[in-house]
Specification:
Elements (H helix, E strand, L loop, with lengths): L1 H15 L4 H5 L13 E8 L5 E7 L2 E6 L6 E7 L6 E6 L2 E6 L5 E5 L8 E5 L2 E2 L6 E2 L5 E4 L4 E5 L9 E4 L8 E5 L7 E5 L2 E6 L4 E6 L7 E7 L9
Antiparallel strand pairs: 1-2, 2-3, 3-4, 5-6, 6-7, 7-8, 9-10, 11-12, 12-13, 13-14, 15-16, 16-17, 17-18
Length: 231
């Protein structure tokens, strides 16, 4: 709903006040790139030298695009299993890519751009009440500035949040704990507080994660239409 409102307002304003269109948008199209498959996510990453890239999740992998010139260009493509969903976030010079294709977590080392990248796949077995089971998929993910990785909508914990440490070893996440066994569609964290979009429960929930092995509920609120898509 938030996305729809943001799109609707400038379009509605431009229809009523066309002379304000340019100043309201305050942007100029630089260039565009067409893919012959669906695009499902994009995130920006800036190299230490200031070079900027778009990391584009598409159905068949991750397209890394140099956006520094007027004409943008793909410099690296990392193929993956064909899947409708990919979500991307970064920590340092690493990109973390989730998908629902049961292929684990893709980790991309971006420091060698624009020439090349290195990749790893993480699918460690994590503790469950039925013994260790491998992590295979996640609908979305989040990485924060403190070096924590959060996996949402996975094949484990009823789809509830999985918390990992990526500060110690960015290419081999360390399992720290589970959030509640409630399907999370999206999450955000800051200062050891986790905000979780529990889509099917209709809750925006807030948790204390100072101890990731013992996550504590602080509070929650129902969202309009009780369908908490993102947070």
């Amino acid at each position: 709903m938030r996305f729809t409102v943001k799109l609707f307002f400038p379009i509605f304003s431009c229809l009523l006040f066309p002379h304000l269109a340019v100043s309201q948008l305050n942007m100029v199209l630089q260039d565009s790139m067409d893919y012959n498959v669906g695009v499902n996510d994009v995130v920006g990453w800036a190299a230490p030298d200031g070079t900027e890239y778009a990391l584009v999740g598409i159905n068949t992998g991750v397209s890394i695009v140099d956006i520094n010139e007027d004409t943008i260009q793909e410099v690296v493509f990392v193929p993956g299993a064909d899947n409708l969903w990919r979500d991307i976030n970064t920590y340092g010079h690493y990109a973390y890519v989730s998908s629902e294709a049961h292929i684990g977590l893709l980790i991309i080392d971006l420091q060698y751009l624009p020439d090349s990248v290195q990749t790893w796949v993480w699918k460690d077995s994590l503790p469950t009440s039925n013994g260790p089971r491998p992590f295979l998929k996640a609908h979305t993910l989040w990485t924060d500035e403190d070096g924590f990785l959060f996996l949402n909508g996975t094949n484990l914990n009823g789809g509830g949040v999985i918390i990992c440490d990526i500060k110690t070893n960015p290419i081999d996440p360390i399992f720290l704990g589970y959030g509640p066994e409630v399907y999370a569609h999206d999450c955000f964290s800051r200062d050891s507080i986790l905000y979780s979009a529990e889509i099917y429960q209709g809750n925006a929930s807030i948790y204390d994660i100072h101890n990731p092995a013992n996550v504590q509920l602080i509070g929650q609120v129902k969202t309009p239409f009780e369908f908490t898509h993102n947070i």
